[in-house]
Amino acid sequence: MSAGNNSQNTFKALVGEDVGPTQHIETADLESLSTTKVIVDQNYIDLQRFVDDELYRQAPDGHSNAAEPTYTCDPSEAELFLLNVKAAIHNFISALYSFHECIENRLDQYIPNGHQVTEDDLIGNGPASEYAYRAGFLVGLRTDAQHYGFSCLQAEPDTVTPDQITYRITFDESTFRQQIGGYDRFLHRNANHRNDILSFIGSFHQTAFNTFWEDTKDWLNVTQDDIEAAISLPDWQRGGSRP
Questions:
Q1: Cβ atoms of 139 and 121 closer than 8 Å
Q2: Which terminus of the chain has a smaller tally of CB atoms within 10 A, N or C?
Q3: Can you tell which superkingdom this protein's organism belongs to (predicted)?
Q4: What does the angle CA 2 – CA 46 – CA 73 come to, to the nearest 5 degrees?
Q5: Which residues sit opposite 153 in a β-bridge?
Q6: The model's pTM
């Protein structure tokens, strides 16, 4: 999906196809927005460090995740390792939540009255948006983490030897539905893809999130040079590079 194609712009899907910004974004607001985006990226990198191979690899269809992310540890360290993996997942989702809050609070003044982007819009309960449907699921996981300690995430052994165990992180939808009130607002049309949590996060970040960010920049008429003038980017992000 091209960020420059207005008919497919994922930010425009939230505010309206014919709606543009009321003014150019101020440096302080661009700094806040860009910083929250970089924090999402950094937490993705931190989660990647626990995975044996990679969180995402583009499939031949150009959309699916061909990677099957797992993590491996010594059997004696399995409980602690799972705790650390869950902490990394939580940090990524919390960073995403902060990014959404920044969009709501910092971009409000640039969006014409009647078109403001709300929390519901960003989790799929407003205008139709594939990004929001997928982000909404992750926000639902954050709710479970806050109140039930990720009760819906399970470590499923994939390969077991005397010296190590390889796990996948799977989503227990039945437990999620039992624990979370109003769960339907988090479970949209991604049922076939959300069972493997690490794969879901990899695909979400590398496709939906990155596209949404590029489309948001496009809507704001912001360039990479504008961002690099507003904040000090990590070396790996200069020039628009991605993790």
A1: no
A2: N
A3: Archaea
A4: 125
A5: 171
A6: 0.90
Strand partners, 157: 167
* Contact indicator for 12, 127 with CB cutoff of 8 Å: no
CA dist 187 and 6 (Å) reads: 27
Per-residue exposure over 131-164, b if at least 16 CB sit within 10 Å of its own CB, e if not? bbbbbbbbbbbbbbbeeeebebbebeeeeeeeee
Q: How many whole angstroms separate alpha carbon 179 and alpha carbon 184?
A: 12
Tokens 């300690």 — which residue? 149
What pLDDT, on a 0 to 100 scale, did the predictor assign at position 3?
38
**Six-digit token string for 93:** 């989702």
Condensed to tens digits (0 to 9), the pLDDT of residues 41-90 reads 999 999 999 999 899 998 887 777 888 899 999 999 999 999 999 999 99
Look at residue 125 and give its three-state secondary structure. coil
Angle ∠(166,206,77) on CA atoms, nearest 5? 20
Phi, psi for residue 165 in degrees, rounded to 5: -125, 135
What is the spatial distance between Cα 98 and Cα 144, in angstroms, rounded to a whole number?
17
The model's pLDDT over 190-240, given as tens digits with 9 standing for 90+, comes to 666 788 999 999 999 999 999 999 999 999 999 999 999 999 877 766 666
Q: Please tell me the distance from the alpha carbon of residue 133 to that of residue 35, in angstroms, as a whole number.
A: 24
Is residue 153 classed as helix, strand or coil in its secondary structure? strand
